[in-house]
Amino acid sequence: MAKKILIIDDEKDMRVYLEAVFRKAGYEAETASNGDEGLWMAETHLPDLITLDVLMPKKSGVKAYRGLRSSPKTREIPIVVLTGLTRLDDFFGDLGDLPKPDALVEKPIDRDRFIATVASILGT
Q1: Which of 7, 36, 96, 121 is the most buried if burial means most Cβ atoms within 10 Å?
Q2: pLDDT per residue over 67-93, tens digit each?
Q3: Is residue 41 within 8 Å of 4, Cβ to Cβ?
Q4: Distance between CA atoms of 32 and 12, rounded to whole angstroms?
Q5: Strand 49-53 versus strand 4-8 pairing type
Q6: pTM for the full model?
Q7: Using CB atoms within 10 A of its CB, is residue 85 exposed (0-12), middle (13-18) or buried (19+)?
Q8: Residue 73 CA to chain centroid, in angstroms?
Q9: Strand 4-8 relative to strand 28-32, pairing
Q10: Do the beta carbons of residue 53 and residue 10 sit within 8 Å?
Q11: 27-31, 67-71, 96-100, 112-116 — which is least confidently predicted?
């Protein structure tokens, strides 16, 4: 059975692109357009991996990350943070007891390296 990936990104073009990349690589993919929707979908659908944009309206990627890592339902799901920012420490700062993301990937994405990272995390 194919692994499920939840894409949380406010940019429609990026959601469509990542969904196509994941499906071509043999994964199932679902999308959410903001942090609130992403948290709900993650807790409801329990994906095998989440990709998370940092800068989003409604609930930023940082707040969504804290919510995902704080929820008993989603805290163990691997998270790959996608961003065009070069100084992520400015946005993540001190995560306290929360673990760092499983991977940080800069936009624009190198598709082959990105899929290799995802495959490595998922053990596929």
Answers
A1: 7
A2: 999 999 999 999 999 887 655 565 566
A3: no
A4: 9
A5: parallel
A6: 0.92
A7: middle
A8: 16
A9: parallel
A10: yes
A11: 96-100
Q: Which of 1-5, 18-22, 57-61 has the lowest mean pLDDT?
A: 57-61
* DSSP result, 48-80: SEEEEESS-SSS-HHHHHHHHHHSTTTTTS-EE
Q: Kindly state the helix (H) or strand (E) to which residue 112 belongs, with its residue range.
A: helix 111-122
**Cβ atoms of residues 30 and 7 within 8 Å:** yes
**Strands, E, within the chain: which ranges?**
4-8, 28-32, 49-53, 79-83, 103-106
Whole-angstrom Cα distance, residue 6 to residue 100?
18
Q: What is residue 103's three-state secondary structure?
A: strand
Cα 124 to Cα 121: distance, rounded to the nearest angstrom: 8
